[in-house]
Amino acid sequence: MKKSNLILIKYGGNAMQSERLKDAVVKNIGKLQADGHRVVLVHGGGPFIQRILKTVRIKSEFIEGHRKTSPEALKYIEMALKGEVNGNLVNLLNRAGLKAVGLSGKDGPLAVAEKRYHLKTENGQQQRYDLGQVGDVKSIDTSLVLTLLDNGYLPVVTCIASDKEGNDYNINADMFAGHLAGALKVDHYLILTDVDGLLRNLNDPESRIDRMPIKEMSGLFGNVITGGMIPKLESCQIALQAGAKSTCIINGTRPATIIEAIYSEKSIGTEICL
User: Which residue in 32, 47, 97, 270 could disulfide with 37, CB within 3.0 to 4.6 Å?
Assistant: First the structure.
């Protein structure tokens, strides 16, 4: 395998809440850097958002894995993502000597957002759901990330961005990561989740799908691809179509899978491919 591959890791779920797992993830990122690879880390922070919104008594609502965000909730979501989660990860990575730099889409600006509406077909008709202060990525400027990478830094990016008018939006972290992975044309895009990949049967860990061409995805939405797995699969499709060379959904609660997904010839997680 050639050196200096560009790897984007989308980090989230239970692996962010366990100190043991966080230490293991950091250790494996360090191994990748030591081998000459360049790494970008993109994170969400669902459990941390839930906690701060519960503390301030703002009820969360989800539509097919997408969080609906009120203007009041957004300021607390930004506090959790930038102030707590991003700051903690940067601190942990820097203590390990990895030269991490914390960013959001607003820095640079790395990303320009636009308001997102969730579309769903019900009974043969398309319904449009207003997600409030939830955005999608309209454009990506990779220059800041590439400058940091070229100078030996590890960008740690969270998914808040503004539109051209300066309105702030919360962007689904999987979708944000997919757009950034595609714009960077990464060699490997890894999504860390809490299961071993995409399962045909949620109750059967042995039903993992090893490889999923994106042309076969559409028939699986609503049965095999449900809930929070929907934006993960969509982000892989976005990344691949924009230029990412490979994408894979792996189990972040087993941090060794990060290394295995890069080096192992056996199937790790679910590879999404063109």
Answer: 32
